[in-house]
Amino acid sequence: MTSPSLELQGAVVARLKAYPGLAALVEARVFDRVPEKAELPYLSWGPEQAISDDAEGITGFDVTIQIDAWSRKVGLPEVKRIAEQVRLALTEQELALDDNALVLVEHRQTRILPEPDGLTSHAAIEFAAFIEQP
């Protein structure tokens, strides 16, 4: 049986890499461990949390994930465009899981964060998912 959070990560990464609105912005640069010399802009897998939320006869998990967008273009427009495409990619159409049942994915918030180097723009895009395990 596949871990719900692992299966969700696989589905999310596949969707982000295939989503047309992101292809022109980040191509297939979606990482869980960013290579040392990664070309910007790109997306990275941020913090996640899985909390058991069982009900009678149902094994469920509330999973919170964060996708981080990174850009070095001057100003914030590019990172904001990327963040919006991430939101659309994960909320416009259902994600399919093979072993578990993804009940819902909701966008929680997008935070635009200044980076200490003064050059990099960062968006933290947070989602909540509920997954049932058979």
UniProtKB/TrEMBL annotation:
InterPro entries per UniProt: Gp17-like, Viral_Tail_Comp_sf
Name of protein: Gene transfer agent-like protein
A Pfam family matched in the record: Tail_completion_gp17
